[in-house]
Design goal:
By secondary structure, the chain is of the alpha+beta class. It has four domains: about 90 residues, Uridine Diphospho-n-acetylenolpyruvylglucosamine Reductase, domain 2 (2-Layer Sandwich), CATH 3.30.43.10; about 120 residues, Uridine Diphospho-n-acetylenolpyruvylglucosamine Reductase, domain 3 (2-Layer Sandwich); about 110 residues, Alpha-Beta Plaits, CATH 3.30.70.2190; about 90 residues, Alpha-Beta Plaits, CATH 3.30.70. Helix content is about 35%, strand content about 20%. The chain has 17 helices and 21 strands. The strands form five sheets. It has a seven-stranded antiparallel β-sheet with strand order 15-12-14-13-19-20-17, with helices on both faces. A five-stranded antiparallel β-sheet has the order 5-6-10-8-9. A hairpin with a 4-residue loop joins strand 19 and strand 20. The longest helix has 17 residues. It is globular, with a radius of gyration of 23 Å. The two termini are about 25 Å apart. Bound molecules: flavin-adenine dinucleotide. The site of flavin-adenine dinucleotide has 37 residues, from strand 3, helix 5 and strand 10.
Length: about 475
C-alpha cells in the first residue's frame, strides 16, 4: 500500500487511533498460540460506526483488503491477515460502549468491542443473565463472538451466540449501515439478514453493535466433578441428569484424564478434586431459578442416581462458591495446559450426542493405529455433542515431526465425523484453518449459495479475503 492511501485511512480515525509501525502493529498479527502470523499496512481503531463506514467505503473504492479483529482469541486464524502486508486490520477495541440495558424487554444493546466478561458484569448488576460463556471471556469481544457464532459452556441450556442475538448493526463493504438493532423476539418480515452475519467471520461486513437477549439470573448454582468409567457412562449419566433437572442442567462437560493430568501438572494452584485418578470426568452444573438449596438438591439427586446405577465411580460436589469456581478453572485451563506438552493436533467437531461414544471409540482406534504412543486429550461440551478432539504428541517426540502427521490424523477424524453425520467445525468456525475441509465436505449446492451470497454482499471481495470460502 502506498503512503498516500495509508494516510487517508489513518486520517479517518486520527493518528492516535491507528498503528502503522512494526512494533505497534505486531500484537495484531499473531494468534495467541503463534499458529498463524501475517502482515498488515495498518491497524485502525475506529471509535464510532460512522468511522467504520468511512473506512469500508474507502477500502471498497481502492480494493483494499479489510480484516476485522475483536479480541484476537479466535482459534482458526480468521482474525489474522495474510502475508502480503496490504490488508488493513479494523480493530473494534474502541467500540466499547454499552448503549442500553432494557430490563423490561430483557435486552442489552452493546457495541461490538465490548468484552464478553464486561457484558456479564453489566447484566449481573441489573439482576439478569447473559449466558454466553467461554474460557476466553476476559478477552474476546461480542462482535467476535457473534462473527464466529461462539458456543461455549452455556450452549446446552441457552443455545449458541446466534440464539442470544435479537438484532445487529452492521457496516456493509460499500460503507452503508444496516441498522437492525431490534429488540423483537418475533419479526417475520422476509429474509433473516441478521443470521447471515452471525458466523460469517467478517467476510460479509463489520458488526458494530448488537442487541442481545437476557435471562433471569439464577438464584443458585451448584457444580459437581464426577468420575465415570467411559464416554458411554458419561452419556447415560447425561440422560439421567436431564431427566432429573430438565433445563436447570446448564452445563455438562466431559474431560479425559490426560487433559486433567496436564492441567494439574502445569497450572499453578490446581488441585485434583478426587483422591485417585479415573479415566473420565464430567463437570456438571445446575442453575436454579429458586435457590442454592434447590440447585444442590437437584445435583445430589443426580449424583445419587449415578452412583446407584454404577455410572458414577467417585465425585466431589462444590460446597462453596469458591469450590464451584475452582472446578470451572480446572475445565477452563484445559486448552492452555496442553501447550507445555508439545505439539497438539486439534479438532473442534460435533456429532449427534447419541453417536459420541461410537465416534470416540473408532477415533481412538484409528489414531493409535497411526501413532501408538499418541496422547489423546478429548474434552468439551458433551451435552451438545461437541468435543475438542485433541491429540498430543508422544513423550520425547520432536514437536514438528508429530505435527507433520496432521495430514494423516485429521482426515481420519473428519472421515469418522462425516460417517456419524457430524460437523468439522462445531463452534470455532472455518477461518483459514479449515477452508480446504469446508470445500471438501460441504455440498456443492450449499457452497455455491455461499459464494453467491458473498458476491452479492461484497462484489469487490474486500472483506477478510482468504477466510471461510
Ligand atoms: C482459551 C480459549 C477458550 C475458548 N473457548 C471457546 C469455546 O468454548 N467456545 C467457542 O465457541 N470458542 C472458544 N474459543 C474461541 C474464541 O474465543 C471465540 O471464537 C471468540 O468468539 C472469538 O472472539 P474474538 O473477539 O476474540 O474474535 P477474533 O478472534 O478477533 O475474531 C474472530 C473472527 O471474527 C471476525 N470478527 C471479529 N470481530 C468482528 C466484527 N465486529 N465484525 C465482523 N467480523 C468480526 C474476525 O475477522 C475473525 O474471523 C476459545 C478461545 C480460547 C483462546
Amino acid at each position: 500500500m502506498n503512503d498516500a492511501l495509508r494516510t487517508r485511512f489513518v486520517d479517518i480515525v486520527g493518528a492516535r487511533n491507528a498503528a502503522v509501525t512494526d512494533d505497534d502493529v505486531a500484537p495484531h498479527l499473531r494468534e495467541w498460540r503463534g499458529r498463524w502470523t501475517g502482515r498488515a499496512a495498518a491497524v485502525l481503531r475506529p471509535g464510532a460506526t460512522a468511522e467504520v463506514a468511512r473506512i469500508l467505503e474507502l477500502a471498497n473504492r481502492t480494493g483494499t483488503a479489510i480484516v476485522p479483529q475483536g479480541g484476537n482469541t479466535g482459534l482458526v486464524g480468521g482474525q489474522i491477515p495474510d502475508g502480503s502486508g496490504d490488508a488493513v486490520i479494523v480493530s473494534t477495541a474502541r467500540l466499547d460502549r454499552i448503549r442500553e440495558i432494557d430490563t423490561q424487554a430483557d435486552a442489552i444493546t452493546v457495541e461490538a468491542g465490548v468484552v464478553l466478561a464486561a457484558i456479564h458484569d453489566a447484566t449481573e448488576a441489573h439482576d439478569r443473565l447473559f449466558p454466553l460463556s467461554l474460557a476466553a471471556q476476559g478477552s474476546c469481544q461480542i462482535g467476535g463472538n457473534l462473527s464466529t457464532n461462539a458456543g461455549g459452556t452455556g450452549a446446552l441450556a441457552y443455545g449458541v451466540a446466534r440464539d442470544q442475538c435479537l438484532g445487529l448493526e452492521v457496516v456493509l463493504p460499500d460503507g452503508s449501515v444496516l441498522d437492525g438493532l431490534s429488540k423483537l423476539k418475533k419479526d417475520n418480515t422476509g429474509y433473516d439478514l441478521r443470521d447471515l452475519f452471525i458466523g460469517a467471520e467478517g467476510t460479509l461486513g463489520i458488526i458494530t453493535a448488537a442487541t442481545l437477549r437476557l435471562y433471569p439470573r439464577p438464584r443458585g448454582k451448584a457444580a459437581a466433578f464426577l468420575a465415570v468409567g467411559s464416554p458411554e457412562d458419561a452419556l447415560a449419566l447425561f440422560r439421567r441428569a436431564r431427566a432429573v433437572a430438565g433445563t436447570a442442567l446448564t452445563a455438562y462437560e466431559l474431560m479425559a484424564r490426560m487433559g486433567v493430568a496436564f492441567t494439574l501438572r502445569h497450572m499453578p494452584g490446581m488441585r485434583d478434586p478426587l483422591a485417585r485418578a479415573y479415566p473420565w470426568y464430567v463437570l456438571l452444573e445446575i442453575s436454579s431459578g429458586r435457590s442454592l438449596d434447590d440447585a444442590r438438591a437437584l445435583l445430589d439427586s443426580i449424583a445419587e442416581t449415578g452412583f446407584e446405577h454404577g455410572l458414577v465411580l467417585d465425585g466431589a460436589i462444590a460446597e462453596s462458591e469458591a469450590q464451584r469456581l475452582a472446578l470451572w478453572q480446572l475445565r477452563e485451563a484445559m486448552s492452555e495446559s496442553q501447550i507445555p506438552e508439545g505439539g497438539s493436533i486439534k479438532h473442534d467437531i460435533s456429532v449427534p450426542v447419541s453417536a459420541l461414544p461410537a465416534f470416540m471409540a473408532e477415533a481412538e482406534k484409528a489414531i493409535l493405529a497411526i501413532v501408538p504412543e499418541a496422547r489423546l486429550c478429548p474434552f468439551g461440551h458433551l451435552g451438545d455433542g461437541n468435543l475438542h478432539y485433541n491429540v498430543s504428541q508422544p513423550v520425547g517426540w520432536d514437536r514438528q515431526a508429530f505435527l507433520d502427521l496432521t495430514d494423516r490424523i485429521t482426515p481420519v477424524v473428519y472421515g469418522l465425523v462425516r460417517a456419524h453425520g457430524g460437523s468439522i467445525s462445531a463452534e470455532h468456525g472455518i477461518g483459514q484453518m479449515k477452508r480446504q475441509e469446508l470445500a471438501a465436505t460441504k455440498s456443492p449446492v450449499a457452497l455455491d449459495l455461499m459464494r453467491r451470497i458473498k458476491a452479492a454482499f461484497d462484489p469487490n471481495a474486500i472483506m477478510n479475503p482468504g477466510k471461510v470460502l
